[in-house]
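The pair is quoted verbatim underneath.

:::
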Amino acid sequence: MDFQERKLFWNTLCSLSGKDLKQDFDELKATIKYPKYLYRYRSVTLNNLEALRTNRLYFSSANYYDDPFDTFLNIDVEAIRKEILDALQTSEKTIAIAERMRILFNEKLTDEQSEWLSADNIRKMVSGGLLEDFLDFVLGLRDELKKDTWSVCFSENGVNETLWLKYAEQHKGFALIYDLDNDENFLCGKHEKCKNCGIMNYGTPLYPIYYSDTPHDATNYAKIVMLNIMGASTGVVNPQQLYEANGVAWERERISLIKKECHKYDEEWRMITGCQMKPPIMMEWIPSGIILGLRMEISSENLVVSMAKEAGIKNIYKSYINTDNKLDAKPVCLRND
């Protein structure tokens, strides 16, 4: 997908209301132009070789990404500060806040706790530094969100020089090729063990990444995450209308699918888990082929090819510099064939 196509996808994603998720998904999917192949760049390590041999793709938690701004909860802290201070300007407003908090926690509050949530106490706590502590807590939600966001990343370009350098050991690694038109190679959901798997039951939607230096404002989402944490600690279930009013049904995707413009040459796609799952999270998908790196050592090449054969991968390619002085890939005749 080119920039304009990715922008259309992003604008559509940001417009979804979340009131009818199936309708939303159909509308969003209509904007996606899937490539025939996706590529995944890998270095030659024991873990990557074992994943190659067993046709496994392991999902990574966002807090392990190399880019600290990937899946970043962009929060307008000053807007939250102003909103709170404005709400405490008069006694009437402060009393209203105290009453809303009592309603939120309803019967979970003891008489002593209910008395503690008086207008006077709220003002005293804010002037005593509670507001700054609260804002620090809100900023800490960034890391909490990342821990629960799991994905697998691909590129639609198999001869991407930047990715060969960054993720394939400076051309000494390899790239896996996944054919999106080959359903037979997709093994998830086809075994008895898959019955209770979150991937089978909730899917792993595949989306393009949108690139922009204008961040997505996730301030409202941060408020909802905060209320969820508060609710979990008190046993209070937040009302559904709270989520609808703040339009946060697609916020996890919006946060995960935008990166800074400096990454646009990655031509990235991302597969996201559709539900909360316990690690390790993995899926089984047989690559249609593999590309050996331009600078791959013979020993590594033999090892990778051996693992690829065991995995049932039929097409082996070797990257090279073509007559137009560009990185390319061509089929290779395997030794011992």
Observations:
- The first helix runs from residue 3 to 15.
